[in-house]
Amino acid sequence: MQLDFRQVSPDEVETYQALMHAAYAPVKALGIQFDAASASLEKTLQHLQSHGVYALYASGEMVASITVRYPWGTLPGPFGLPHIGWFGAHPARAGMHFGRQIQDRLEKEILIGQLHAPAVSLGTAVSHPWLKEMYSKRGYQPMHTTDLGKGHITLYMKKILDETAHAAWLTRQNTQTEIHS
User: Fold this and answer.
1) 20, 101, 116, 165: most buried, per Cβ within 10 A?
2) 3-180 CATH fold
3) What's the rounded Cα separation, in Å, for the pair 159 and 161?
4) How far apart are CA 148 and CA 170, in angstroms?
């Protein structure tokens, strides 16, 4: 099976929206409200135009997608690092590990290869029965929780991609905090 990884273009908005709605349907059934689960076509297009949205295509079919929100963008993550959002694989393709594959490709090709990011963050619902464990197995460490007013408590997690660059980034963050104190 031919697998391609590339950025999603705005003319794929309907296909992308259908994938996100399908991927998030099981989460929505748990009563957890993530934005991607029910985003309108307009909101989905705005999402595509505001962030780096990547998809994995199996023989030309979009089977998984992941978003990177930039620290300098309209919806930065909590740490001043790239932040993963709207991440899912089509449930009809369960067991093919497309979610893991797209996350690995994003980390290697985009976050490390292009952005030289020291680390990446993501958020998930504390009440989700297995996402925290899955992300922990993939190297993400719990950082803190917060209530974003979405009906669940969000757990922010961080994964270090480059130890040396992360140490330098932490030093810069601490220096900036001291300057602003």
Assistant:
1) 20
2) Aminopeptidase (3.40.630)
3) 6
4) 25
Q: Which two tokens stand for residue 6?
A: 């590339």
Q: Where are the domains of the chain?
A: 3-180
With beta carbons less than 8 A apart as the criterion, state whether 141 and 157 touch.
yes
**DSSP readout, the chain?**
--EEEEEPPGGGHHHHHHHHHHHHHHHHHTT---GGGT--HHHHHHHHHHSEEEEEEETTEEEEEEEEE-TTSSS--SSSS-EEEEEEE-GGGTTS-HHHHHHHHIIIIIIITTS--SEEEEEEETT-SSHHHHHHHTT-EEEEEEE-SSSSEEEEEEEES-HHHHHHHHHHHHHHHHHH-
Residues 80-129 pLDDT 10s: 999 999 999 988 877 788 999 999 999 999 999 999 999 999 999 888 88
